[in-house]
Amino acid sequence: MLSRVYSGALIGIEALRVDVEVDTGSMGEPRAFIVGLPDAAVKESLDRVSSALANSGYAMPPARLTVNLAPGNVRKEGPIFDLPIALGIISNLGAIPQEAFEDTAIAGELGLSGGVRAICGGVSLALMARKSGLRRLILPRISAHEAALVEGVDVYAADSLSQVADFLSGKGPLDRISAKDSLFNFRHTARNLPDFADVKGQSRAVRAAEVAVAGAHNLLMIGSPGTGKSMIAKRIPSIMPEPSHEEFLEILGVYSASGLTQRLQDAVMERPFRSPHHTISDVGLIGGGTSPKPGEISLAHGGVLFLDELPEFGRNVLEVLRQPLEDGVVVISRAAAKIALPCRFMLVAAMNPCPCGYLGDARKKCSCTSAQIARYRARISGPLIDRMDLHVEVPSLPLEKISSGQSGESSAAIRQRVLGAREIQRRRFAAEKGMVSKVNSAMDTRLIKEHCRLSPELESILLSAMKQLNLSARAWDRILKVSRTIADLDSSEDIGSAHLMEAINYRSLDKF
Questions:
Q1: Residue ranges per domain, the chain?
Q2: What pLDDT digit, counting tens, does each position of 308-355 carry?
Q3: How many CA atoms lie within 13 A of 307 on its CB side?
Q4: Is 491 buried (19+), middle (13-18) or exposed (0-12) by CB count in 10 A?
Q5: What is the pTM of this model?
Q6: Cα dihedral sign for 336, 138, 242, 423?
Q7: Under CATH, domain 196-511 is a member of which superfamily?
Q8: Cβ atoms 317, 282 nearer than 8 A
Q9: Considering only CA atoms, which of 498, 411, 477 is closest in space to residue 210?
Q10: Beta strand extents in 12-71 (DSSP E only)
Q11: How far is CA 315 from CA 21, 318, 383, in A?
Q12: Which pairing describes strands 14-26 and 2-11: parallel, antiparallel, or unpaired?
């Protein structure tokens, strides 16, 4: 007997259709084989399947069993094929008609009792099923809630092997999960984030954060310890626009492929905020490994990547950020596979002005020599500094100001201005079909020339600033982009002198 069940293999964050062929009619010694480049976890499937079948009222056929995972030139990983293999065996026993699998994709891990456990990549499997023309998708319950957000596929939640077998044979129902019922429907989530109202003083740094979010620009904060750099960074998500449905699916897809959605307590997903420790490796940051997986920059996709104590990160770790910051995607090549991972994120970084941290601090004297300061700042390369659109100094505050009861401006008020600026940008770039992110930071040279025109007087001012600060051509473009964002916050059609001067003042680190 031969049966065929459609499933999928996860490669990076994308799923490839896999045909699970189960042959239980071959003559010979009653042994079981899996072919089609399976890894160790896939090879162990037969042991789990055998126990799951026995505890669900079925039995392994007393004949030679061969499972083929096609295509055979792609390596298959993980326990994702347990459920389709078991159902193929049950079909060969005559309990499920082969026609039941014709328009259905199935994936899931089995427990020895026959229960179905969550797997990675629910969103990716739903996208694969839709692309392959499959109408139904059966997944473990939590994975089904993820997949339900993908339109065009009927998603069913499985709790046990016997339940799925009864459904396919027409003997019982399965819960169908719709998008509105999904635990991951972001429209049902409430924003409960740290508020900028908690930030006392530091109006310039808060303004820089507002400008950065309004145009999705990268932000670098420089200041002594305890001045509020981390506090400001952690409040940036509270003024970011909510993701669109497509953006949310991309974010959820990355987290699903990484296995992180399975451990969510309340299934609430905001824009991600990732803050890796400075001891992280380059692979941990950009992704990779023998079987390439998303790193921190992909987990920050659609949100914020916060690098605190920036000079303490390894030089090689920081340098790998350069290409992803420009392209919004990181390509990882390995002998087994070549994958592209999305990483359009807003980089927010913080650093001290010197090794001891107190250069320019009014409260404490700096103990560093000029050579120590130079070595400390040399840990961050010029090309990486060029890619930071805004540099802002965060000075220490008098104790009187810190202890005062006066609150800062609320995140809700700042967010309204940000949303207004983002709407202007959305309309401006609506006709740009090749532009993935409709924000000022994503403008290329052609769009900069079209939307960031300066008067002769303002161009002369910018040229003078470029010479004084010894800035690169990349810095020129980034100043123009930031100027355009500041003008958008003012709802101004043209870039004015105040907009340009503010953008130039956000290049404070260049003077060193």
A1: 2-181, 196-511
A2: 999 999 999 999 999 999 999 998 887 666 888 999 999 999 999 999
A3: 24
A4: exposed
A5: 0.90
A6: positive
A7: P-loop containing nucleotide triphosphate hydrolases (3.40.50.300)
A8: yes
A9: 411
A10: 14-26, 32-35, 64-70
A11: 49, 5, 12
A12: antiparallel
Please name the helix (run of DSSP H) or strand (run of DSSP E) that holds residue 82, with its range, or none: helix 82-92
Contact 443, 452 (CB under 8 A): yes
Beta bridge partners of 176: 156
The mean pLDDT value for 254-265 works out to 76
Q: How many CA atoms lie within 13 A of 15 on its CB side?
A: 32
The first and second tokens of residue 463, run together, are 């040229």
State both tokens at 43: 């090879």
What mean pLDDT comes out for the span 487-497? Answer: 96
Q: Which helix (H) or strand (E) holds 314?
A: none
CATH of domain 2-181: 3.30.230.10
- What span, in angstroms and rounded, lies between the C-alpha atoms of 246 and 149? 10
Instruction: Let me know: does 452 contact 483? Beta carbons within 8 Å.
Output: yes
**Stretch (H or E) spanning 138:** strand 136-140
Beta-strand pair 293-294/287-288: antiparallel
* Residue 193: C-alpha distances to residues 14, 434, 479, 496 (Å): 31, 33, 30, 34
Reduced to 3 states (helix: H, G, I; strand: E, B; else coil), residue 20 is: strand
Spatial distance between the Cα atoms of 490 and 484, rounded to a whole number of angstroms:
10
Identify the H or E element spanning 502: helix 497-505
Q: Which uninterrupted H or E stretch holds 350?
A: strand 346-351
Mean pLDDT of 425-432: 94
Contact (CB, 8 A) for 11 and 101: no
Cβ 197 vs Cβ 410: under 8 Å: yes
pLDDT value at residue 336: 62
Secondary structure (3-state) at 21: strand
The DSSP symbol for 223 reads: -
Residue 188 has pLDDT above 60, yes or no: no
Residue 313 DSSP label: S
d(CA 462, CA 479): 9
The token duo for 146 is 């993820």
